[in-house]
Amino acid sequence: MTRLHHEGPDLFTSRDYNEPVDAPLAERMRPRAFADFVGQEDITAPDRPLRRSIESDQLSSVIFWGPPGSGKTTLAHLIAQHTKAQFVPFSAVTSGVPELRTIIKAAEQRRSMHGQRTLLFVDEIHRFNKAQQDAFLPHVERGSIILLGATTENPSFEIISPLLSRSLVVVLKPLTEEALGQILDRALADSDHGLGTWQARLSPEARRRLIAFGNGDARALLTTVEFIVRQAPAGPDGTRTIDEAMLVAALSKKALRYDKAGEEHYNVISAYIKSLRDSDPDGALYWLARMLDAGEDPKFIARRMVIFASEDIGNADPLALIVATSVAQAVQFVGLPEAQINLAHGTTYLASCPKDNASYVGLLEALKDASTHGNLGVPLHLRNAVTSLMKELEYGSNYRYVHDDPQAKTEQTHLPPLLSHRRYYRPKSQK
Predict the structure, then answer these.
(1) In the prediction, which pLDDT does 422 show?
(2) Angstrom distance (rounded) from CA 164 to CA 162
(3) What would the DSSP string read from start to end of 208-263?
């Protein structure tokens, strides 16, 4: 394994992983090799391109996008272990453009004098505004640095397009309950870095609820289990037995009300959407209240409302999308607790609307045809003849201008010949 190169203080110092004994459990249990990194096998399995590029030290600029506790920083640790390049961590929370200029200058000197690359890991890169992100661009383009960014936010909205076009976006998913179970069991058994010396024993019910409480976030899970184990009383033989009642007493009622053991995040939002779809404003309001009472992000609810307005209502009531986007704006502008009123307004409107998913269904069918049949040529009469050669090739020939020829609206074809019989959009009123 290659020695880590670093400059200045950073969270990757001491890659022998001799963490202080008082370091948080999530840090002590951070995987030291790919074999220990569970839950993201789709991108880190031995045959995956990302894994091969890391192990061969041929990584290009990458943006890691995933929810908290999914493994973004751990991947950075693993890259640090495998690279011969200078690995420089950089936090968008605590650092700014002046510090970046210093790093870039050192990287350029390193490259010109020693031919050594610099991998710059930028944690929470979305916290840089668009103008600050521009500062990375010329150096990524010249190869002065290889950028590794980590973000919990959608890069399409939070990262500037020129930077995205020069980077591979790797999507990390929330960890499954199975993956969280493996992480939990390893932490409880590991006597060197975990809680093995505490002799903690979880009942099956407590284990299940604890994994559910993690809700896809390994860091949250490990932080919670460390708290639970440390405050659990030891029995005569030193064993700390933790049952479901003890777990409930140790954790807040509100947190458990929204975990995966009962009406958790995904189940509740599913109940909310299905209530809207079934035109039941009472059910929708109840599930909205449950989410708000449990501390759900109101922006998440508003985003789902915007999606629902087009997916399930569509042209049955085009105003629904306007109402939903207005609610989303109001949530941003007003904030809680008053934004609850806006969410209730939008919820009852969407639930009361007529429903028609024809636009969404039609899109799915068109996407399937596009994938199945590949790049079918645009019919000549629909092409735009912008050069004399195109005119000679009959681009645009026989096109009928509907304002001059109203019959063209129904008689002129607009699909490739192979798909001329397709009818994607079938609103309910015409079925």
Answers:
(1) 86
(2) 5
(3) HHHHHHHTT-HHHHHHHHHHHHHHSPP-TTS-EEE-HHHHHHHS-HHHHHTSTTSS
Residues 360 and 311 sit within 8 Å (Cβ to Cβ): yes
Residues contacting 270, CB < 8 A, separation 6+: none
* In contact, 75 and 33? CB cutoff 8 Å: no
Tally of helices (H runs) and strands (E runs) in the chain: 22, 7
Token pair belonging to 330: 């109001």
The string of pLDDT tens digits covering residues 145-185 is 999 999 988 888 889 999 999 999 999 998 999 999 999 99
**H/E run at residue 87:** strand 86-91
- CA-based nearest residue to 313, from 282, 288, 277: 277
Q: Taking the mean position of all CA atoms in its chain, how far away is CA 388?
A: 48
- The first and second tokens of residue 89, run together, are 């961590």
Only one residue has tokens 């668009």, namely 130
Provide DSSP, 145-191. Answer: -EEEEEESS-HHHHS-HHHHHTSEEEEPPPPPHHHHHHHHHHHHH-S
Higher pLDDT, 89 or 414: 89
Largest CA distance in the chain: 94
Average pLDDT over residues 415-430: 82
Torsion-angle region of residue 116: left (phi > 0), alpha (psi -120 to 50) or beta? beta
Helix 298-308 with 339-352: angle, nearest 10 deg: 20
pTM over 0.85: no
Q: Which of 236, 138, 228, 232 is nearest to 187 (CA)?
A: 228
Burial 327-366 (b: 16+ CB within 10 A, else e): bbebbeeeeeeebbebbbebbbbbbebebbbbbeebeeee
| Residue 30: per-residue pLDDT | 93
Amino acid at the residue 286: Y
Work out the burial of residue 55: count CB atoms within 10 Å of its CB; fewer than 13 is exposed, 13-18 middle, 19 or more buried: middle
Coil/strand/helix, residue 412 = coil
All structural domains of the chain, each given as residue ranges with its CATH number in brackets, are: 25-171 (3.40.50.300), 177-256 (1.10.8.60), 265-352 (1.20.272.10), 372-430 (no CATH)
CA–CA separation, 119 vs 61, rounded Å?
9
Mean pLDDT, residues 16-24: 63
Q: Could you tell me how far CA 348 lies from the centroid of its own chain?
A: 29
